[in-house]
Amino acid sequence: MKSFLAAVLSLFVPGLGQLYKGHFVQAIVWFLVVGAAYGLLYWFVFALVPIVLHIICILQAYFIDNE
Fold first, then answer.
1. Does this UniProt record's set of keywords contain Membrane (predicted)?
2. Is the pLDDT of residue 47 over 80?
3. R_g of the chain, CA atoms, integer Å
4. Which tens digits make up the pLDDT trace of 14-39?
């Protein structure tokens, strides 16, 4: 159940699931990387980049081990 909640949290805020599981550095990295990708979406012709990064963030939050 903790993994599912971490994935849902990362769905709404990238990195929040990692933070919930106690992985602070990964949470900051995911928040900055996915946030920057969405911020640069205006200049990207290929809009799939931030969406793919966000999905990877969600999956990583689900499968990361608990601390």
1. yes
2. no
3. 12
4. 999 999 999 999 999 999 999 888 88
Report if pTM > 0.90.
no
Measure Cα distances from 17 to 30, 51, 67 in Å.
10, 17, 12
Query: Residue 15: CB partners within 8 Å, gap ≥ 6?
Result: 26, 27, 28, 29, 30, 31, 34, 57
Q: Token digits for 41?
A: 């979406």
3-state secondary structure of 9: helix
Which of these, 50, 4, 1, lies nearest to 61 by C-alpha position? Answer: 4
Contact 4/20 with Cβ under 8 angstroms? no
* 44 has pLDDT over 70: no
